[in-house]
Design goal:
The chain is built from eight helices and 15 strands. A hairpin with a 2-residue loop joins strand 6 and strand 7. It has 318 residues and is α+β, with helices and mostly antiparallel strands.
Length: 318
């Protein structure tokens, strides 16, 4: 049987083998082909030497003269054993969530940490009057839902195998808005600048940037948030403050570890209205402000304290 027929039969058997076997057989075929080429080159060299000695090798002449015995290199190349090369870049496909109706579960989304790192993304959800922070994949206490994805203005929940949307408190659900699932482990987009146009003029400024004890507490808090964003609820209790049905800021209360709360000069009942230039009275920017806690070296927090605007400045020594 000729070499070309042997190769043809070998490739016909590839489709019947598992992937690992296909790789092994492919390597074997290629090595056999390379060995054949070396053998052919060797015989050609011997033929040249024997020709000079006037020795005739009829067998070699028949091999080199018969076209049907030659290896069809182009045919092997056309098999694309390792895939066809393409200069065209692979199109980036956006995964759009087509069906994620608003959830009917009695839950309130009060905070999010939208991140390109799946392990850092988290959401603060209130259920049965109790707030808790959840990472992706965690079950929401008292429900059959699990946190699926986190966005700046909403989260996706997986409830009995189907996706449902929980909007950030104060935002209305719009089924016509397409939701694109986040690509985790990619560079995060830059944070937007506040566009509400609202200007707060602080009447009191508390500069804590030279408070070394507070700096150490803040630095420790930053590290904890980087590893587990949910730790923020160990230091602060945050709840929306409303007037006439509209969110006017976020009320701050000490949590089970009041160290940061007391060191920072915060008072129970303070209403945070702006952080690092993000207007906390706008739900979308409030979500971004939480993310900035992990990334800024200095923190500027504007508070409404019994009607007076107070600005507290913190420094994070990286």
């Amino acid at each position: 049987m000729t070499l070309s027929n042997n190769l043809s039969n070998a490739f016909e058997q590839l489709a019947k083998l598992p992937q690992q076997k296909i790789i092994q057989v492919t390597i074997l075929v290629l090595l056999s082909y390379i060995a054949f080429l070396f053998a052919q080159i060797t015989w050609l060299g011997l033929a040249e030497t024997n020709h000079n000695a006037n020795l005739k090798l009829n067998g070699l002449s028949s091999v080199s003269a018969a076209p049907k015995e030659q290896v069809q290199v182009k045919a092997i190349q056309a098999l694309n054993l390792f895939g066809a090369f393409s200069q065209q870049p692979t199109a980036r496909v956006e995964e759009v969530v087509e069906d994620a109706p608003e959830t009917r579960l009695k839950l309130t989304l009060t905070g999010v940490v939208a991140s390109s790192d799946k392990a850092s993304a988290a959401a603060v959800i209130e259920s049965a009057g109790k707030q808790a922070t959840y990472s992706i994949g965690e079950n929401i206490k008292g429900t059959r839902a699990a946190l699926e994805d986190v966005f700046n203005d909403r989260v996706l929940l997986k409830v009995s195998g189907r996706l449902e949307t929980l909007m950030f408190e104060g935002l209305l659900f719009d089924k016509n808005i397409k939701v694109i699932k986040p690509r985790y482990n990619q560079q995060a987009a830059s944070l937007p600048v506040s566009n509400t146009g609202q200007i707060f003029s602080p009447t009191n400024i508390v500069d804590q940037r030279d408070n070394k004890a507070l700096n150490q507490v803040t630095k420790s808090l930053q590290k904890e948030l980087a590893n587990d964003p949910g730790k923020i609820t160990d230091y602060l209790r945050i709840s929306p403050k409303r007037e006439n049905g509209k969110i006017t800021g976020y009320q701050l209360m000490p949590a089970k570890d009041p160290t940061f709360f007391q060191s920072a000069g915060l008072k129970s009942g303070d209403v945070a209205i702006q952080m690092n230039g993000f207007d906390l009275t706008a739900p979308r920017e409030a979500a971004q402000a939480l993310q900035s806690l992990k990334e800024q070296r200095e923190v500027s927090l504007l508070l409404n304290r019994d009607g007076d605007i107070t600005e507290i400045l913190f420094s994070i020594d990286n």
